[in-house]
Amino acid sequence: MINLNNKVALITGSSDGIGAATAILFSSLGAKVSIVGRDQSKLDKVAAECESKSPHHYKPVVTKADFIRDEDVVRTFEKTISVYKTLDILVNNAAIDGTKGFGEPDAMNEYDRIMQINVRAVVRLTELAVPHLKQTKGAIVNVSSIVGLKPIPPVWSYCMSKASLDMFTKCMAGKLAPDVRVNSVNPGVTRTNFQRELTDLEAFRARAASLQPMKRLAEPIEIANTIAFLASDAASNMTGSIVVSDSGMLIADPFAQ
């Protein structure tokens, strides 16, 4: 059984989707959570649910921040430590997607934004967290993507960012062992608002589900369950693992499409 009782967890990108589901699940398992996102109203709703689901009625630390700015990354971490004084778990979930094809106008500016939030912010936050995680023999879970392993050319910059994140996971797992475990969960298409910029989100979801061997999309709680497992002592022998949860996308038969 997964036990996160009284563990302190910082979960980025936790105002919606996988991050919100993870924060609520961690709270229900007894953890003290710090949540961060760009939308204050969504953060407030997640915080209220975290408190109601917590067996101890712990109130989360809530930070509105945008990880496009390094100073917001630092401020988020410092606020977490100022309240909790310690850190057991870091979940690097905050990310943005891309819509610009290679060579299109503004593609390089979008690439810079994606790499800043999806990679640089993760590296900076990890750098800040490691001294505390070493003291607690803690764990890092990076939320990557199946596209770090399976190229999707129209979202080339997002693919690059997640491939970088997977390699960072492996490098840090080797560097920080045996003090800190570092693993990644790589979801496929998940039923969140991550693709909200699409003009027909439901059509995209239906098409994506039809291409999966399991003929369905993941639900945020399913990915959150994997994150909780990797963060807990139940995964005490795992580090440097890239754990795929993708409805079978990685092994889909391209000729069946």
Automatic annotation (TrEMBL):
It comes from the Eukaryota. Keywords: Oxidoreductase. The keyword Membrane does not apply. Gene3D superfamilies: NAD(P)-binding Rossmann-like Domain. GO terms for molecular function: oxidoreductase activity. InterPro entries: NAD(P)-bd_dom_sf, Sc_DH/Rdtase_CS, SDR_fam. Pfam families: adh_short_C2. This is Uncharacterized protein.
